[in-house]
Design goal:
The chain is of the alpha+beta class. It has four helices and seven strands, in the order ααββαββββαβ. It is globular and about 45 Å long. The relative contact order is 0.20.
Amino acid sequence: MTDEHLARAAARRSMDAVIRGDKDGWLALFAPDAVLEDPVGPSFFDSEGKGHHGHEGISAFWDKAIAQAQRFEFDIRDSFAAGSEVANVGTITAYLPGGMRVDTEGVFVYRVGDDGLIQSMRAFWETERAMATLRPAE
């Protein structure tokens, strides 16, 4: 991911902030009216499946989902940028308390404005497939 496409660069900055555990830096990457859907549709992070809206909603998502892991690794195997969006294909590995880890395979789509701020992030992944990878961390 060396292309400086605005959406690809925003996605890279987002992953970096998550890896570093930088909630404030991560939130600053999102437009004030941004929407985050991770995953798209109803889930244990979003029971109504309507997404997390604005900095307040996205901050609450961090607390529910990201802050619960001890660390994350991202393996982006492919990336397709077009217009104001990028679709990244890869695996997110979360290391959980209690010495466990889980791999989430998916497609992660970011849309940015002309200012490079994330307007939407939509993650397409399946809970059952991710949970089937739950295992002790190595």
